[in-house]
Design goal:
alpha/beta; 35% helix; Glutaredoxin; two-stranded antiparallel ribbon; 6-stranded mixed sheet; 186 residues
Length: 186
Amino acid sequence: MNRLMRSMVLYLATGLGANAAAAQDLSPYLTGEMRGLAVHEVPIAASALPFLRADDSEGSLADYAGQFVVLNFWATWCAPCREEMPSLQNLQTALGGEDFTVVTLATGRNPPQAIRRFFDEIGVTDLQQYRDINQQIAREMGVFGLPITVILNPEGQEIARLRGDAHWDSPEALALIRHLVDQPQG
């Protein structure tokens, strides 16, 4: 009986405690390029594994606690990533701040010099150059194929995912992110 009661309490707490951003109806914002965004009914824990910064120090997604994060998995050899990256910089420029940031994570074999060259060639200057060595974060988060972009809530949980590239500076993407950031949390 105790086990059944604990399960019922856990189930109820999970259902009631789901983050408001994931539980709310985002369908009005799933238009244009955002129509392919898969919104999760229940938030999914993001990886706690470390990534490497440009200076080879370690960081983690937990460094962004309290913020909504657009987390983009990409690679230097990925042609759609090359097309998408400037729009991620534009999104960061437009909305980045205390409540929101864009994090790009080069996954797999992407030497630091190749990442610097990639950013220089496409004119990206305002995004961090993080590396997911051995694709450990990507594997843990079920990233198969690139680019993949996930949206994390301020608790560090994945609330939505988009497979493939998008114009993250489109009116639809900007409206979606503004809506998420402007919603009361709790």
